[in-house]
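Meet the record:
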Amino acid sequence: MSAPRPAATQQGDLPDLNVWLALALAEHPHHRAAQTYWHQAAAPRVWFCRVTMLGLVRLLAQPKLMGKAALALSDAYGVYLRFAALPEVGHCAEPANCESHLASLLGTPTPARLWTDTYLAAFAASGGLRLVTFDKDFSRFSGIARLQLAPR
């Protein structure tokens, strides 16, 4: 991967797990769209948070998802480490006011299946990050900068 091109964002991009997974797997159905994002629309700084890092490693090691291509946990963690070693990629600690953003997003009824999405939206909002995703469920959260990727 080469360095992402600059984009108009605040502190950088927080890709959703679905974007990291599509970037990691050439055979992923959204890989091409994720690559286009990376090379043409990504912010100069792209962040993992603990949730997206753990999720990427878990999914890469999950036989139900990966089948025979499932990686050992140490190898899946190695995929994360290769991303993290790129100069434009970092690990963002939870912003100090993330909890209050999370509470405010829960002011409207939220299905339990969107709990992690709600957290990522709060993380992005409180960190001044643009959330990048293929998931249209994030449109329900107002007040977050979001880049909606279209599958190809």
Notes: The radius of gyration is 15 Å. The beta strands are 13-15, 46-48, 89-91, 130-133, 145-148.
